[in-house]
Design brief:
By secondary structure, this protein is α/β, with parallel strands linked by helices. Helices cover 37% and strands 17% of the residues. It contains twelve helices and 16 strands.
Length: 386
Amino acid sequence: MVAHLAVYGCQQNQADGDRLRGFLLEMGYALTDDRGEADLVVLVTCAVRKHAETKLLGHLGTYLHGGKPGRKVVLCGCMAQREEIRELLRKRYKQVSLSFGPADLGRFPIYLRRLEAEGGRHIITSPDTAPIEEGLPVARVIDPELNRANVTIMTGCDNFCSYCVVPYVRGRERSRAPEAVLAEVRGLVEETETPEYDTQNRTFTADRTREIWLLGQNVNSYKPDFPDLLRACGSLDGDFSIRFMTSHPRDAGTRLFEVMARTPHIAPFLHLPVQSGSGAVLKAMNRGYTRTEYLEKIRAAKAVIPGLTLTSDVMVGFPGETEQDFMDTLSLLEEVRFAKLFTFQYSPRAGTPAGEWPQTVSQGEMKERFLRLLEVQKRIEEESGG
């Protein structure tokens, strides 16, 4: 049997894909990049923005039609946890054989064996409070040029930003045991060869990993303590560096910055999403910090961490955003001078508070502000030699 795995969206989804790949190999599937050869197609999906959902649904037809007779299609990840999508699968995309949400990742072999034995369709509503399962197989495919690996340390989110669907699809915050995270990082650091998939150690890596990313919707909420975990991982012996994302500005503080500055192997890199430079918009977004507080954290981080590289997320066109609010965002960019920005136009998500609010910024205005934002950031990067 041959399987094709396609991952859409964030690094957290990529990490989930590594575990699904591990399960498939343990279950005896061969893997292929050619979906036409596959007996099984597994799609790991993203629901953060409407555009991501629309794009995946547009591609779904290419996975559902043609290919091998009897091919089965599995839809998992954040999209699969949304009731609107489950209903769409039931009514329109009847060729999808199995769907389940992120919290059911560890039950994938059970669901797949049931599908193989019984056939039919299994559209599953996954829980949002299940604990993270340890000991799952990990089959990473690491770019030999980058030698980069993702390690999930927590999942879910308790922040409930007014525009964000993540707490509704990923569930509430759940953290992995620190000893399990440390063991996984140590295994990546100590790997010296390029083995085939090792069923005993349940890993598949490419050479020694040089860059390790610790992942979570808000790594600063990691329990029992993120700075302690970061210090432990960064104190291991070896030739590697550690980065992490995403770090919520409300919870990032001096102690984190000091650990970054004083611990070997922690890269002087901080991704701190601001989303907007307007205090009024930040309040409406329920971000939990003010513009002033954000800038104070930036100054504190720069003061402690030599050579710090800062990146961020910025959204334009949020409901209620005025021209002055947008200008406040541009002025924040000029003051902080991020090395790179991930920029977005606001996308209303059903089920979120902001999704019910009137869209006060027209599509034309949103696009015009977005282009202005890109121009300002491009100039900052050029002036900074980026």
